[in-house]
Amino acid sequence: MKYMGSKSVLLRGELGTLLLQEAQNSTRFIDLFSGSGSVGHYIAENTALPVVSVDLQHYSSVLAGCITERDAKLSQSDVVTSWTGAVHRSLIDDPLYEQLQEPIARLGKATVMRARKKSSRFTEEHFITRDYGGHYFSPQQAYILDLLYSSLPSVADQRKIGLAAILHAASVCAAAPGHTAQPFQPTKKLLPYIKNSWTRDVIAICQKQVETLANRHATKIGKAIVADAISVAESLEPGDLVFCDPPYSAVQYSRFYHVLEGIALGGWPEVSGAGRAPARVLRETSDFSMKSQATEAMTELLETLRTSSCRVIITFPDADASNGLSARDIIHIAQEKWHVYDKYVDSVHSTLGGSSSAGGRGGRRALQEVVLLLIPKDDASLCVPEPQPSNYTEDGSSLASDGLLTEALDLVSTATSAELS
Ligand SMILES: C[S@@+](CC[C@H](N)C(=O)[O-])C[C@H]1O[C@@H](n2cnc3c(N)ncnc32)[C@H](O)[C@@H]1O
Prior knowledge:
Order of helices and strands: HEHEHHHHHHHHHEHEHHHEHEEH
Oligomer: single chain
Number of strands: 7
Number of helices: 17
Distance between the termini: 43 Å
CATH topology of the largest domain: Rossmann fold
Shape: globular
Bound molecules: S-adenosylmethionine
C-alpha cells in the first residue's frame, strides 16, 4: 500500500542495516511515528525485540499491530478466509448489491453522478457506501467493503488482520492519487483512472492480503498504540531504541488519510465536500505538521528522549521541508546533548499527487534522506570515541562524509561484543 513517507524501500538498504546493528544493543524498539507500520514490522520480524508502534491515527495502529502484536502464524487463517468467502457467496442473492450495479465499462460523468446519488441513500449501517460510494469507490466496491467490515471475525487476532486487509483493499481501490484527500472527479482526463480503480476486485485483494498477513508475525509480542509521540517519549527507558520518522509536510496526515481513519473508526458522524472529509475538529492535528510549531515540537521531543536516556535514529529529507524543519535544524537541536552521526541515502518522496512542477514524475521525486544516529553524550556503556563533528560546517553546508556513521557503528558494536564476552 502507498503511504506518504513510507520507509519500506529504504529498509532494504542502509537504513535496514543500521537498524539491525543498533537493535543488538537494545531491549525494545519504539517506532514513534509508525504510519504504515513498515519499520516496526521489519524489526519485529528480523530481531528478537518487542516493538511498540505509536501514531496519532487509528488506522496506523491497525496496520502496525496486525503483525507486531502476534508471535505466531495465524493457524486459523482458514477461518479468516471463510470470512471473505462468506461475503463473496452472499452477493449472489443480494438485491441491494444488484441495484448498485453501474455500467463501469462505459463510465461517464452521468454514471458517476448517478452512482453517488444511489450510494448516498444508504444509512449508517453501510457507512462506506453512504460516505464514499460513487466518490472513492464504485457503489458495489463500497458495498462489499461494508459487508466485509460488518462481518469481521470476532476473535481479536483475526479481526485485526481482517481490518488491516480492508484498509489495504480500500487504499488500493480508491479512485484517488495515492492518498485520500480527494477522489478523482469525473472529468474527461480523469474518468479512465476512475474506471481503472472501480474495476479492481475488492474481495480478491482483501483475501490475498489476509493470506500474506496471517503468515507474518513478530518474534516477540509488541503493541501498537494511538498516542502522541512526545507523551510516549516521557515513559521510555534506557535500552529503548527509538525510531523517529516525523512528518516533513506542513499538511496534516489526517487530511490525506481521513477515509482510512473513517474505516478504522467505524465511520465518521458526517462527511462533506469534494473530499468527503469529516469536520476539521474531528481530525487529529500534529504540531510536527505546523510550520509555526514543528521546531518547538522537535526540540521538546529530543529533550524528552534525552531525559529518558534512549538511543535514537531519525530520518528526515536532506532539504528544507514545508513544515519549516530541515535535517540541519535537527542536528543543531541535538548536538549539545548527543553524539550525532549522520548518513545520506537516496530516497524518493511523494509530491502529494503533484506533477512535474515539483521536479518529479507521477507524484514522486528523487531526494536524499538523512539518517541520524543520536547517542546520549553521557552514555558510559557505549565506548564511543570523542564526538565526531557532524557533516555540517558552521554555515550549514553539507560535507556529506558518509563514513562517520559506519565508523561509529563499528566501534559501538565492537565495544558491545567486548563487554559481552
Ligand atoms: C513520515 S510518516 C511515517 C512513515 C512510516 N515510517 C512508514 O514507514 O510508513 C509520519 C507519521 O507520523 C504520524 N504523526 C504525526 N504527528 C505525530 C505525533 N505527534 N505523534 C505520533 N505520530 C504522529 C502521522 O500520522 C504519520 O503516520
